[in-house]
Predict the 3D structure of the following.
Amino acid sequence: MSMPSTASRRLRIASTLVVAAAAGALLAGNTVAAEAAPPEVISRWNNELVHVNSISPSFNQAIFSGPYTVSVKLTAENTGNTAIQYTCLVSAEAGADTDHAFVTLPPHSQQTVALNVVHNFTGNGLFTFACTKPSGTSTVRMKQIKITGIKVNSVNNAPF
């Protein structure tokens, strides 16, 4: 079996490149650009809330009809001498889609809490956020709370 000549190999490589370029041009000519609507952003923030009772001050926001992704981020600081079991919840349309964060806050420490929910609001709906802690536990300072809802073109929300 003889080895192909250098010229023969170059010809095959050049032919392959021409075929690939032609296929790419053919496919490119048949594509239609999707026209995405620009996102709408709703953002709310509070740099410090004091969580004294078992339920934190809650946040409620009316959201217009359509698909949204909503994220919440905060830093929770335990001001006391004992650990606190801390739970935060974000909910779309009375629990149709939710996310929970469960953290243990050691004494005199802080921890970042992040939540995300996606939901297709079928009408003007309500989005809520709040945190809970056991009654009688130390105060939690909720710092740098950022809540952002982004209206998107579509939502595909399925388990994996």
About this structure: The radius of gyration is 27 Å.
